[in-house]
Amino acid sequence: MPSNPYTPGQVPRILAGRVEEMRRIEGLLARVATYGELGGPLLVFHAPRGIGKTSLLRAAQQRANESGFVTAWVASSRDQPLLSAIAESVARSLERADAVPTGAAGGRWRGQLDRLTLEVGVPGAKVQAQLSRRESAAPPHAAIAGLESLLHEAATSVRTRRGAGLLLLIDELHTASAAEMAVLLNTLQNLDGERADNPLATVAAGLPVTPEALTRAATFGERSSFVSLDRLSDVDARAAVVDPAAAEDVAWSDSALTAIVSESRGYPYLLQLLGSTTWDAAAPAAGSRLTLTHVKRGLPVARDQLDAMHRARWGAASRLEQRFLAAMAAAGDGNVTRAAIAAGMGVDSRSISVPRERLIEKGVIEPVGHGLVRFTLPGFGAFVRGLDEA
Ligand SMILES: Nc1ncnc2c1ncn2[C@@H]1O[C@H](COP(=O)(O)OP(=O)(O)OP(=O)(O)O)[C@@H](O)[C@H]1O
Ligand SMILES: [Mg+2]
């Protein structure tokens, strides 16, 4: 019996859609590979949770590996200094690719690694302390110079070993501090000044606050390329459900497929979750077909899982944020105005900015233009309204 091909919460076996986004990435890679030069400014994908940022970055990584790049993956987090995570990841990926600089360059390389670790790596180290204290002050030059020569040396070393170049991937970039972002942006800016000598590209992803945070960290942060990731179109959503099953020689009935696609509203996580629960309910043999009966049988499991996610999001919200969410849920499931939320909370609409920003940062709600917001996770409004009744 074929095993379940769906991947709720993990990188998908088959990335559906994202054709435009992959083209952007391939553009950068082509520039590095063909001319041996810097692949443009920082490319940043931003979207709420579960839309497919990590999945896209992983697909980019795979494409780059296939094209002869050495790739370094960094999952930024509030617990670890970003700059030392970058240094570590770049060093590890060079080792794995057997592309660590040797000879005179090797000496420089080790010196840089040591220096950078000293500057930014060890908690309590000189610059690290500076970085955490002075959020918006001018970024420390030593850290910029350190990261700059590290990336230059690494990318050049890959190239002299006939590799295409270095691809640096940074996920969850929104967790970096303003000072770390400033160092990263200044570094890339400097590398761009000598772009012909720096065969590398940097692609990042983060929650919707990322562009604003980068622009605040350094004025020229706005020169980065920002691309927002949307839910999947109907056609792509269908492909996300059908293709993994087809690879196992299992088909979907039209009604089952339509039910899942409309229930998940193009939200990739939900497509994977419902695909998975349907598959488990059916335990299909090769050559068989998943039907609406299987979808329905799998629904309770999917609901439990979603319920747990709703609960986690609610639990992570402060009291004020919870009041905001309750007022928002009471106003309906679509796009909600600032005025409606303020009215629901019984306060002036100017005074809701702080919980609004925090909830956007956490990825629980997202702005949809003209001051409107909506929930990022389908069914969250109904969940919150349900709490009221309980
Ligand atoms: N293009 C896609 N095709 C098929 N499945 C996808 C696609 N993009 C994402 N998914 C699925 O959606 C879910 C969420 O994807 P992913 O983890 O990449 O999102 P994310 O935006 O990084 O979320 P988070 O902000 O929580 O890290 C996963 O189960 C993944 O398998
Ligand atoms: Mg992710």
Question: Can you describe what's shown?
Answer:
This protein is an alpha/beta fold. The chain folds into three domains: 19-228, P-loop containing nucleotide triphosphate hydrolases (Rossmann fold); 234-313, Helicase, Ruva Protein, domain 3; 316-389, Winged helix-like DNA-binding domain superfamily/Winged helix DNA-binding domain (Arc Repressor Mutant, subunit A, Orthogonal Bundle). Helices cover 56% and strands 10% of the residues. It has helices spanning 19-35, 53-66, 82-96, 103-121, 126-133, 141-160, 178-193, 210-217, 234-246, 254-264, 268-282, 292-315, 319-330, 338-345, 353-361, 380-389; strands spanning 43-46, 69-75, 165-171, 200-206, 225-228, 251-252, 289-290, 365-367, 373-375. The strands form three sheets. A five-stranded parallel β-sheet has the order 2-3-4-1-5, sandwiched between helices. Helix 3 packs parallel to helix 6 and helix 6 (141-160) packs across helix 7. It is globular and about 70 Å long. It binds adenosine-5'-triphosphate and magnesium ion.
Give the helices and strands, then pairings.
Layout: H1 19-35, E1 43-46, H2 53-66, E2 69-75, H3 82-96, H4 103-121, H5 126-133, H6 141-160, E3 165-171, H7 178-193, E4 200-206, H8 210-217, E5 225-228, H9 234-246, E6 251-252, H10 254-264, H11 268-282, E7 289-290, H12 292-315, H13 319-330, H14 338-345, H15 353-361, E8 365-367, E9 373-375, H16 380-389
Parallel strand pairs: 1-4, 1-5, 2-3, 3-4, 6-7
Antiparallel strand pairs: 8-9
Helix pairs in contact: 1-2, 3-4, 3-6, 4-5, 4-6, 6-7, 7-8, 9-10, 10-11, 10-12, 11-12, 13-14, 13-16
